[in-house]
Structures
1.
Amino acid sequence: MTTRNFRAAARRSQGWWALEITGDDLLHPAYTQVRRLDQAEDMVRDLLALHFDIGKDEVGRIEVVPVLDADLAEEVTQTRRARDQAEKGSRPKPHCRLGGRLST
């Protein structure tokens, strides 16, 4: 049996991720929503089974693609930068021995 591949474009919408699903042999996009992106793949599989009679074993790869507007993309960039700086600050400093004494 051949599997079919799908793409879920995810856009933020009032605290939810709105999903637009396209893919192999779908005549038109399908729509659903999830609270978190880690729930998207299961939700897409359920939607395909219920509305298009596509068995879960027929579904191959589901590509979940977040689509961010400029404000949200900037917020993600700032959050990643702050996380990176926090991780650098929390790393222990390397120690070395000088003349038999431990130095920092």
2.
Amino acid sequence: MPELTPRSIAWGIALCIIFTVASAYSGLKVGQVMESAIPISILAIGMARLYPRRSTLLENVIITGIGGVAGSVVAGAVFTVPALYILNLDPHPVETIFICLAGGCLGVLFLIPLRRYFVRDMHGLLSLPRKPLPSPKSWSQARKADRKPSLLLQATLIAGVL
């Protein structure tokens, strides 16, 4: 089963555009961008039910990978472009696009050597903290909370209206 399908690319780009717009709005309005990888991965699994052929895990990873860069891409533009206008530099829109592209390329170029170090060379050397397993009582409380999602849905509707 291939992981790079037209469906995974189309949904990844569509979700990237939606979450980029939402992240840019929240970044300019509130000053904080949102991480979009987790909501996009949940949506990718939910959207798999719309098709007769279920998507594979690899397709969902591609959708999450493409769509998950929304917050990272927009954060550089949201936090630096207003500073250019505050400093009265008034860049041309084409210059602004090239500044954002240069920042993205520099980020990728700095990430490549660090990824090799942290993922391959340090694999297994850093210990993760171990947490005890949850008690059966906490599991039953979590199941009860899952049965009553109405408060969460009401809060979502109120936030959407506002």
3.
Amino acid sequence: MRNLQVRIRRPPSRASDLELVESERPQLTNGAFLARLQWLALDPFRCAADATARDLPKPGDLVPARGVGQVIESRHDVFGVGSLVVLDCGLQQLCVSSGHHARLLHAGQTPVSTALGVLGAPGMAAYFGLLDLARLRLGETVLVSAAANAAGAMAGQIAMLKGARAIGIAGTREKCDWVTRHARLSGCINHTAENLDARLRQLAPHGVDIYVDNVGGELLERILAGGHFAAGARIVQNNVMPEEPQALLTRGGYLPGKMAPEVLRLNLKDYEQRRGEFLREAIAWHGAGRIAAKEHVVEGLANAPAHLLLAMQGGNFGRPLVRV
């Protein structure tokens, strides 16, 4: 059995910067297992030129990805043949793992693809970013960017479930319609077609208490410059390029000593030991139909390069996934 992979030719800006290659079936070693991937998640921030990861992939590297697969051969004490696992595997059909950064699929993560979306890392980031890092309180107003994507949609819905108001920001009318009709947020702003300042003054006249920032860059600076934050506001940054908070706030018009929002950077690794806490509540919400999830799926690894580039340009609608 050959192993189809997607590797990097050069820092990706077009689909041709990635290449499909065939390699030999991975060799199993003691203490490891071999999984055949079923689903792969595409995370643009892991490949972007301004990626926060120190191990930014280089030409020739496998495109990094997290996936769900079934163990087909094992010399591991925990991950036996037939087990479904969630693991860091890269964009490929077959993956050997020592079990590091791997875990068994939770029985409540159904359908399986949710383990890579609302019941996986994006949902967990939204959950702990809001409830632990930002300390969400009843009645607060939460603003969420990329509100139709997995982390953004989950953040908005958690805020609503916890008794807050949630306003989304998205880039098309179709996405905003989904955010208000299916995710049931209080409102959504199409930042490409509407006046962001005017709409924020309309939807959050007393200011924003928490901004869940999934995109950074110009959008964050526009919100800061517009003076849309309430006293005691918090900005939770998830998978955006790190920047010294005071420099960011100064560009937004907040001088040192002036009351400014608190900038909080989410590190999901800090919450790994609390994954069970998130899953207990999130699986119950999802099972009761209280959480909507949007997925943008393509079939086969051959379609992964174009799909990844679309996501890097913000063109995806929902969690970008590959069914292998």
